[in-house]
Amino acid sequence: MRSPLSAARVRRVLSTRRRVVAASVVVVLLAAAVAWLARPQDPRVRTEAAMLTVRSGPSGDEPVDLDTTLYLPEGASARERVPAVLLAHGFGGTKESVRTDAEEFAGRGYAVLTWTARGFGRSGGQIHLDDPDHEVRDAQRLLDWLAARPEVATDAEGDPKVGVVGGSYGGGLALLLAAQDQRVDAIVPMITWNDLSRAFLPESTGGDPTQGVFKKGWAGLFFGGGGNVGSGPAGISGSTEEQPQGAPADAGPPSPGPGAGPGTGPTGAPARTADPACGRFAADVCAAYLRIATTGRADQAAVDRLRRSSPAGVLDRITAPTLLVQGEADTLFPLSEADANARGIAANGTPVRVAWFTGGHDGGEGPQTDSDRVRFLTVQWLDHYVKGAGEPPGDDFTWSRIAGFDALDRGLVATGYRTSDYPGTSGDGRREVAVSGPAQPVANPPDGNPAAISSVPFAGALSSLLGGVAGDIPGQHARFESAPLDDAVDVVGAPTVSIRAASPTGEAVLFVKLYDVSPDGAATLPNGLVAPVRLTGLPADVSAARPVTVTLPAIVRRIEAGHRLRLVVATSDQAYATPVEPTVYTVAAGDGPVVLPTVDGTVIPTTAVIWRWVLAGLLAAIAVGLVVLVALLRRRHRRQDSSVHPAYADVPLAVRELRKEYADGFVAVSRVDFEVHPGQVVGLLGPNGAGKTTTLRVLMGLTQPTAGEIYVFGHRLVPGSPVLSRIGALVEGPGFLPHLSGLENLKAYWRATGRPWQDAHFDEALEIAGLGASVHRRIRNYSHGMKQRLAIAQAMLGLPELLVLDEPTDGLDPPQIAEMRRVLQRYATDGRAVLVSSHLLAEVEQTCTHAVVVNKGRIVASGPVEEIVGESPSVLFDVSDPAAARSVLGRLDGVRVLPDTEGQLVVDTNGTARSEVVAELVRAGIGVDRVVPRRRLEDAFLALVGENSRGSGDR
Fold this sequence. Notes:
Layout: H1 7-37, E1 45-56, E2 62-73, E3 84-88, H2 99-107, E4 111-115, H3 135-148, E5 154-156, E6 159-160, E7 162-167, H4 169-180, E8 186-190, H5 196-200, H6 216-224, E9 229-230, E10 241-242, H7 283-295, H8 300-308, E11 322-327, H9 335-346, E12 352-357, H10 368-387, E13 397-405, E14 412-419, E15 429-433, E16 440-444, H11 461-465, E17 477-481, E18 489-493, E19 496-502, E20 507-517, E21 523-524, E22 531-536, E23 548-551, E24 555-559, E25 564-570, E26 583-589, E27 594-598, E28 602-603, H12 607-640, E29 653-661, E30 667-676, E31 681-685, H13 692-699, E32 707-712, E33 715-716, E34 727-730, H14 742-753, H15 762-769, H16 784-796, E35 802-806, H17 814-827, E36 833-837, H18 841-847, E37 850-855, E38 858-864, H19 865-869, E39 874-879, H20 882-889, E40 896-897, E41 905-908, H21 914-923, E42 928-934, H22 937-945
Parallel strand pairs: 3-4, 3-7, 7-8, 8-11, 11-12, 31-36, 31-37, 34-35, 35-36
Antiparallel strand pairs: 1-2, 2-4, 5-6, 9-10, 13-14, 14-28, 15-27, 16-26, 17-25, 18-24, 19-23, 19-26, 20-21, 20-22, 20-25, 29-30, 29-32, 32-33, 37-38, 39-41, 39-42, 40-41
């Protein structure tokens, strides 16, 4: 019968299809354009290493030796001049830190000059923190040197066509150099600062840096020579690294390459500061640091010194088009630093574009999809403003959010978004969420110890992971909670909150945090970001305190429906300096709600997105085909056999003449025949390769038998049989999603069964697992034993009538094994039954009521455990003096006392009457309390299968 489609409906369908096809073509073309623009170029380049002597300093004539390398693209010459890139490394790095980026820029047609900044590696001089008279003037002299190179294109004599790219320390230099030298044509500063004093002395209510809270963790790593500090993407590939200050990056003195040009000089010995506490830092920088680190407070002179190395005061001088790339996972230089730079530069009419990505000092480069976006934006920016190629990039604001795991490589995937107007950290929309809770006393610990953990400076991706396990010390923090959200909210920007505080000293240092709390209680602190505040002029009574607005660090996070917000106000944080004297503050929530900024944007199409859609379509088609196939098979099986075998209607499991032979002729199971009845715990025993696992796999429908039948409660078992829902199983180990918690994995499994929620019996299953609060932790943090216990709980979901377990005690410690023994015995009640495969014979003997012994694919014994054990040739004696009894019995002919019997007196009488043995002990004055035959399942097992039996090689 034909479908009654009207002509209008046909037109609508065809029109919809045309729109879908057209949209798909547009997306594919966009993806192809992105791939073409970001395609790798010819990597063959030539390099020239040289030690250049430049003159800088306040007077402009202080010499310093800089270790440099020039990368020239193939074909660059006096006839074929090319634009240049000045590529700066991160703090503690060297020119080698950016080698990969330099080679890629050179492969794209740029002359790239890299150098080791003064005070690092083999370069001379001291570290002045991007001081205008030192590091910035050094870079100006390098511009002079580039302008003199015959291969470098110029805008005028002495003025090279040049862009400056750098991450962190190198990004600060790019901004300061552009402000000081108008020859710079474009800059791409990444994950860098606006105001160095605010970065290291933050105060989130807008207070002056002299009142800021000292970021001692990061500062100590910079000045104390700690390990590598990842600075995120620099240039194209993001290979810049920040390393211990003063650490050499190369093995020996470089050889000047041909055409090194004027200004080359000998390798100078690095100058050292007079104070060894600061390594190669200049004396004024060292003194400022030591004063702050000693007192935990900054004086105005220290703030002025840090601001001298900050772009904040010179942004109005920057005329070079600026692409600002900032990381969302960054406790050193948060998104607010880029926001301040963007606003200051744009106020002068200079083209500015802002891009946020998921990495940063605490998150590295972020997922590949994100680093690809940063690479594309960087190349696009330089190609237009330095090379003069391509359309204007525009000033769209782009950001990204972790979207999940890639189905192919299981790596993280970030989704990029764009909007035409830059909203800043305040967003262009807002969502208000009320939080509540009583006023709470919080203790400031003496000398800040113990301290809460929010992030670990210098730990790279580890620090961002800590956002999920951030720890607050009991008694040192106050909590205020919201109700579950009715719908999801995408936060893009800096949330604001209001708090009130009281202190007996009139002052308080507090750390304000905003957690995302899932329905199962798991709390996540996004990227470990906190808002430190120093409040002064506080009353002693919180009822008299005025509300203070706190601006939290900007974040990009989707808070799902059903989640709650948790506002935490803590008195300590291991990354910051806090007051030494102990005291107790009182903290209350302010009068207003938590304000979450939002931004509406469109998804940025990428080749990865296109292929994911193509792959999703293919998978969907395959899935539909499989569903249809399974449905047909099930229907056929139901037609073939829907009856119930009357002999087995009340039997949980009946295996009849089971045989499994593989295509290569290997016989894993040749004849297996047994039953499992209600109330029984049946142990399936056998040496390795005997056929146990194959039997269980056939039982669970994981492989088809060659011959034989399996009945479950009288229903013949076939793949897809409805009766399988009455079986719970753990066969071939647990399989869980590592990024979900244990409870989330259990819920996902039960949802997949399609059975009613109330039938799951989660509480009983979790009690059996015995994981406690660990059930809320992600699976990736589980030990093998914890995964095993969770898998057993999963098998018991729904309290199935037949439970099939393969090596359930694998990975459990002795107390857990004993508990598992009790669990299985309790489970086999109310008509339920258990089939358990195990190689621990002692556990089977204590746990199981019945046993089935398999050897070389055949059953060699089955029945109650006590019948299999049988009569004992040995006797166990309970006596008053075991040591004396051993001595007496050792003198009797034919009687042998067995060794290594775990402290018990076990005797092989060898035909001697037990009464004679007892009489001999009594005559020796030894009391005999009990005489019992002794034989273990292990003895019977070895007698049945042989000492050296290896089975048939089970698969």
